[in-house]
Design goal:
Blueprint: E1 5-9, H1 15-28, H2 39-47, E2 54-60, E3 63-75, E4 80-90, H3 99-113, E5 119-121, H4 128-136, H5 152-159
Parallel strand pairs: 4-5
Antiparallel strand pairs: 1-2, 2-3, 3-4
């Protein structure tokens, strides 16, 4: 592989590749059994009338070797948007070359250009290599916060509807 790394946004034709990166990340996180996204769902979410998320690829010699999927959140205290990084993944054969750092730097520049108050993400507590990497960048864990999630039947029940699909 060449050392020339470029960052480019994903296009509609990249949806199958986005899904492959999602599956690769899920396999790394030991969560592959939870991936149920389809190409059609991703195409609608990423490129439909209302775009819910964005994807960028890190490419080496023109070939995608890493990706980041992100979207805007909002800080009421700051009165400004933020960027939430949902997924960051670099293929194993491309690691150790600064590609993850380049993807995060791209997102940091995007956040600054869009006047975002922050860039944030979650990491699994067992993922020590990633935690060490993020700390080396100056990122700090928010240990005082606990993430809650509603899905499936619990989400449908609270919404007042029937059992949720899938």
């Amino acid at each position: 592989m060449t050392d020339t790394i470029t960052i480019r946004p994903a296009g509609r034709d990249d949806v199958p590749l986005v899904l492959q990166f999602i599956r690769d990340l899920a396999r790394y996180e030991r969560l592959e059994h939870e991936v149920c996204a389809s190409e059609a769902e991703l195409a609608e979410a990423l490129f439909g009338e209302r775009r819910y998320a964005e994807v960028v690829f890190a490419c080496s010699g023109g070939a995608p070797v890493g990706f980041a999927l992100f979207f805007h959140n909002f800080s009421t205290f700051k009165g400004r948007p933020g960027i939430y990084l949902e997924d960051l993944y670099v293929r194993p054969e491309a690691r150790g070359r600064g590609i993850g750092r380049r993807l995060l730097a791209h997102l940091a520049r995007t956040a600054v250009e869009r006047r975002c108050a922050r860039l944030e993400w979650a990491v699994l507590d067992w993922n020590e290599p990633s935690i060490a990497f993020y700390r080396s960048l100056g990122a700090v864990p928010l240990d005082e916060w606990t993430v809650f999630r509603l899905t499936g039947d619990a989400l449908a029940l609270l919404a007042g509807g029937a059992a949720a699909e899938g």
